Amino acid sequence: xxxxxxxxxxxxxxxxxxxxxxxxxxxxxxxxxxxxKGYKSANAKVLDxxxxxxxxxxxxxxxxxxxxxxxxxxxxxxxxERYRLMVERLMRIIYYNDEMKKExxxxxxxxxxxxxxxxxxxxxxxxxxxxxxxxxxxxxxGTLEIEQRNRPLPPELxxxxxxxxxxxxxxxxxxxxxxxxxxxxxxxxxxxxxx
Length: 195
Fold this sequence. Notes:
Layout: H1 5-21, H2 27-36, H3 49-69, H4 72-94, H5 98-102, H6 110-134, H7 146-149, H8 155-168, E1 183-185, E2 192-194
Antiparallel strand pairs: 1-2
């Protein structure tokens, strides 16, 4: 007797659950496990081994297809959504206030708040690392933006800065009358050395 699609989906879900616990289970043991869960043939015997083998193959093939179709960014988004409720609960523990007391929440101990902070930090780091691994951000490990760091200041900005230094008394006023090639300001002394 052929099973209805709904019954077949329930059996496939049960097979998936059993395979999670023991991925190397034999078909005979899988038959027995399904029988114990209440999945029987029409005459109250174990399901046929060929039928179970066929469903096991469908489960495996479905899992592989689902993984192939799922993009990494979608998977990370699902993970972030799943952890959103945990983050909200941890935040309520960390930032406990009188309003929560009125709602019936008992105040957390200091140890519980510290543990919640640690869990929240670990969760944030885990999500950030998974986003990095998924390529949602560009990594520039070990590279410096040298072009921007060593770019000389424009003359207008130099002039404004020099005026500010003179106004603050860091640089003497005489320096504004003539333009030296290099100005060295020695922090221990309040004088300017021209080279």
